[in-house]
Amino acid sequence: MKLEPYTIVVLTEIYKDWLKKVNYNPFGEDESFVYFGEISNMPAHCVVAGYESGKIYSGYHTEDFKKSEML
Hints:
The protein is mainly β.
């Protein structure tokens, strides 16, 4: 499923499990994000911002995010 810009997204369960397994969490306390879109010269990578913190995260795989069911 292709995500639309400005969609509220969360991490997929598979990605969250992998982050726990490797003991790595680049997202701090952020659990939901605003999806800004795919990076045009880096296919399959995106830019998101933490919904709570506003911190920008770039270069992460688009497939590791899914649309939030929060609304």
